[in-house]
Specification:
alpha+beta; four-stranded mixed β-sheet; about 50% helix; about 15% strand; globular
Length: about 240
Amino acid sequence: MTNSVLVDGIKFVNLEVQIKIRREIVKRSVSLLAVLIFLVIAATAQPAAQAPDYESLLTKAKRGEKGLDYAALRIAYAATSDFNPVVDAKVRVEMYKLIKEKKFKEAIKLAEAVHKTNFVDISSHMVLALAYAELKDQPKADFHKNTYLGLVNSIINSGDGETAKTAYIVISVPEEYAILDAFEYKRGTQEVVTENGHKYDVLTVTDTKTNSPVKMYFNIDIVWKGYDKVFPKTN
């Protein structure tokens, strides 16, 4: 099955996006969610220098090794000193602008610059997959397409996003937007809520295929801890 992907209003039809339907994931989301919450607590409780196997996971990711645990990769990255949940939205917008303008080499340069400090940035892998495909470099296009799918599916497999208990686990707000793009949902309202000691972004969006409203929950505990690091509290 080949689907188109809508990103920032641009529909891309040359990237095969095979994302499992959320309903098919619900059956195993509860046990997987428990594992992911354990990983979140373990990763964020450690000093940056002790991030669990991040360098090892990163090496495997860059090799394109099959069976890589992309959820563990993302969460391990969030425990490193490079992690910063505050992402410059202008870079994301500029990358897609360059793709739309068919300035593929410039888009590649910008996206690869993002990877110097954040290899798990989902949007940049989407851009690189599209750009390399247009430049007929299929091996690199496939690599970034598979990385994109691995990262996106690692979020989708963390829950169903329908309630706080089964919220998608993200490490940054742009990951939320990547999921919306993958499902072709249009952004709407967004609010932060706290339930049972956990922080959630609750998004009310529109399914562009049915024009129906959808409420989505994202667990942002890691994001919130990142904010505390970037913006330390003062007495």
